[in-house]
Amino acid sequence: MSLHLAEISLAVEPGAHGVLLMDQAGWHMTGKLEVPDNISIVPLPPKCPELNPVENIWQFMRDNWLSNRIFTSHDNIVDLCCEAWNRLIDQPWRIMTIGRRKWARGS
């Protein structure tokens, strides 16, 4: 995660400051995490998937492409997950629709 934050830090314009919303997964909140000076982490409250649009993306993928099936092997799981991911990224409008929150938009 520290390496991921370092990469994000490189994308923050000089003189600017990045803010990342993160759930409270252990690897997001560990004291060992090295957070660059130009990034702040804002933790989401625990057990609030409605505040984390990514949770809705995962749910969409499970509901439409990954649930109610029998996986035949580890490779089969990986292949089907990759297929689902590729189907999703071919539909950017779907990602935007799932991730939007009417109540989070300004008027």
Automatic annotation (TrEMBL):
GO terms for molecular function: nucleic acid binding. It holds the Pfam family DDE_3. It comes from the Bacteria. Residues 15-76 form the Tc1-like transposase DDE domain. This is Transposase. It comes from Sphingobium cupriresistens LL01.
